[in-house]
């Protein structure tokens, strides 16, 4: 039995030595990969039209025109000119310039809004449907009515600048509600 105890002790000592001086190995394999992140390229076009003398809708050609009448034909809509669907919003701004400087002119105008698919929120007009590729929105507006008497009384000889700010964001992988969509550019 003494011999068995010795063998057991030597075996235990050999096992401990193997455990202490052993090493573990694992193999790795490197594979070179490229991660591609794609973003949709959103492109939209503002359509600024008017009615000609025959009642046909035509593009506004001039940056400047004389205000001769109270009612001015101005048709604003947006066309999606890219391959991705988008959400659209538009802000209208009217500013004036006279001898005293720049003044807000929005109080001298009334817009003739055209379609219920455009809804106002926080100064922006949102197109409430997704604008599919190669499609055009319904008209946001069909005209502008100026209060010429009040404008000439308050700011005789002034010039008025009409500015349309257009923004678009992707609708894919975004909210189902245009008002909750994320990614709108910060206002300038």
Describe the model.
It is a single chain. The chain is mainly beta and 188 residues long. It is built from 2 helices and 10 strands; from the N terminus they run αβββββββββαβ. The radius of gyration is 35 Å and the shape is elongated. The termini are far apart.
Supply the number of helical segments: 2
> What is the oligomeric state here?
single chain
Distance between the termini: 94 Å
% residues in beta strands? 35-45%
SS class? mainly beta
Task: Output the radius of gyration.
Answer: 35 Å
Point out poorly predicted stretches.
none
Give me the secondary-structure topology.
Layout: H1 2-21, E1 44-51, E2 57-59, E3 71-80, E4 86-98, E5 101-104, E6 109-113, E7 118-121, E8 124-131, E9 141-146, H2 148-154, E10 159-170
Antiparallel strand pairs: 1-2, 1-3, 3-9, 4-5, 4-8, 4-10, 6-9, 7-8
Summarize the structure.
The protein is mainly beta and 188 residues long. It has helices at residues 2-21, 148-154, and strands spanning 44-51, 57-59, 71-80, 86-98, 101-104, 109-113, 118-121, 124-131, 141-146, 159-170.
Task: Name a few traits of the molecule.
188 residues; five-stranded antiparallel beta sheet; 2 helices; 10 strands; 14% helix; elongated
């Amino acid at each position: 039995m003494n011999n068995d105890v010795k063998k057991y002790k030597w075996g235990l000592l050999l096992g401990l030595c193997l455990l202490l001086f052993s090493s573990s190995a694992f193999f790795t394999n490197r594979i070179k990969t490229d991660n591609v992140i794609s973003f949709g390229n959103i492109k939209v076009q503002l359509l600024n039209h008017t009615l000609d003398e025959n009642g046909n809708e035509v593009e506004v050609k001039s940056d400047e025109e004389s205000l001769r009448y109270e009612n001015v034909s101005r048709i604003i809509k947006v066309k999606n000119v890219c391959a991705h669907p988008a959400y659209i919003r538009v802000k209208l701004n009217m500013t004036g310039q006279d001898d005293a400087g720049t003044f807000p002119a929005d109080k001298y105008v009334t817009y003739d809004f055209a379609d219920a698919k455009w809804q106002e929120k926080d100064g922006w007009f949102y197109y409430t449907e997704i604008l599919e590729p190669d499609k055009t929105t319904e008209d946001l507006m069909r005209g502008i009515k100026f209060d010429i008497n009040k404008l000439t009384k308050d700011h005789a000889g002034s010039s008025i600048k009409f500015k349309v700010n257009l923004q678009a964001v992707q609708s894919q992988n975004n909210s189902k509600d245009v008002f909750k969509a994320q990614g709108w550019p910060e206002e300038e």
